[in-house]
Amino acid sequence: MERLQGAARPHGRLDSELALLDALGAGWRNRVAIEPEPVGSGVVAQVHRGVYEGRRVAVKLVHPATRRAVSEDLAVLAFLARAADGLAPSIAKFLDPVGLVDDFSEKMGRSSSMEFEADALRKLRKNFSREAGVAIPEPFLARRGALVESFEDGLPLAECLRALEGAPEAKAAKRAIAARGLRALLKMLFVDNCVHCDMHSGNLLVRPHGADVAASVARGAFDLVILDAGLTLELERRDLVNFVDLFAAVVRRDGRACGHLLLDRARYHECDDREAFAADVDRLIKAATSASDAGLSVVTLGELDIGRLLFEVLDVCRRHRVRLEAKFATTVVAITIVEGIGRNLDPDLDLLREAAPFLLSRAALKAI
After folding, report:
1. How would you label 333-364 residue by residue, b for 16+ Cβ within 10 Å and e otherwise?
2. Has 198 been annotated as catalytic?
3. Which chain regions cross the lipid bilayer (predicted)?
4. CA end-to-end span of the chain, whole Å?
5. Element (H, E) at 268
6. Which of 338, 298, 182 is nearest to 290 (CA)?
7. Which one is catalytic: 85, 96, 198, 239?
8. Residues contacting 347, CB < 8 A, separation 6+
9. What does the pLDDT look like over 91-124, one tens digit per residue?
């Protein structure tokens, strides 16, 4: 994801100026100034340094061909989904191709909407306003294909890791970054119900509070800056409760409970052997950890691959004809991205210890 983000071909200066003209009108030069060369270019948009009302800003401009290309591609996917629905209705009942494409279309539309991203940034900033050590850009203006937001200083995660090489505090610093990123995701999932679904390393900056990067980060004196909120997700209450209960059962290694939860709360299924389904889910969870005799006191990222496990659960659901909601798959992707970063930084990070306060708070709220 990081390579895709940095390697996309930028559009030209004229297209940037036309985007600003379209968004801000004829007097746009009196409101914002941008550097001619972008600092980064992704699949949907590119980002320029700039100045807006005396502030240093980042100006995000959607590529001119993006919306047209996305619209055309989604039309093809919608046609194929409807065709699959008509040609194989018995399979479509539980795979729901039309629903999956509709959900994907909504997310792609949002990812190229600067107004939606600005709203998402405001929500994330509000949710993390009292959370020390996590920073979100502030949006100042969003219109059509342009977003003007605060310019956030910091080291891209890959560059920060290079700076840590050889430092005696490197292990502690990596552990601190992994823990902060995981806690941020858990808070989004279990407290805020507003999940940034694209937290790959290219969208994360580390901003040390001191000149010595390794020493500052190791003692927790840094901000984790989360960029690019174009893909965020809020679950309906029913789906949120289902996901939290399922996640808790996975962390407890209670595979049979996972299986029964999936069946009891599925919107649709044609599973004809409830116990076989629960047993298949249980086997997946038991196989996902090598420390089954160690009890429940420690579940590390190196030991339990939540992302892979949840993808395998999706496959079991397919084989047993159990339909899961499209947003479940998106949430799985969000967890997998952050979990992968966390595992590379600190495979010994205790998932149960980090998740327990959030799971307990959700349980307390449900009991009220």
Report:
1. ebbbbbbbbbbebbeebbbbebbeebbeebee
2. yes
3. none
4. 41
5. strand 268-269
6. 298
7. 198
8. 300, 301, 302
9. 666 667 777 787 777 777 777 789 999 999 999 9
* φ, ψ dihedrals at 93, nearest 5°: -55, -40
How would residue 160 be classed by pLDDT, with cut points 50, 70 and 90? Answer: very high
* Gap between the Cα atoms of 156 and 225, Å rounded: 9
Separation between Cα atoms, residue 24 and residue 36, nearest integer Å: 18
Task: Please spell the DSSP secondary structure of 62-112, one letter per residue.
Answer: E-TTHHHHHHHHHHHHHHHHHHHHHH-HHHHHHH-HHHHHHHHHHHHHHHT
Distance CA 152, CA 115 (A): 20
Give the count of alpha carbons within 13 A of 69, CB side only: 8
Is 320 strand, coil or helix?
Answer: coil
Q: What is the per-residue pLDDT for 317?
A: 85
Are 272 and 249 in contact, with CB atoms under 8 Å apart? no
> Residue 37: what are its φ and ψ, rounded to 5°?
-95, 130
Report the candidate in 172, 222, 231 with the shortest Cα–Cα distance to residue 200.
231
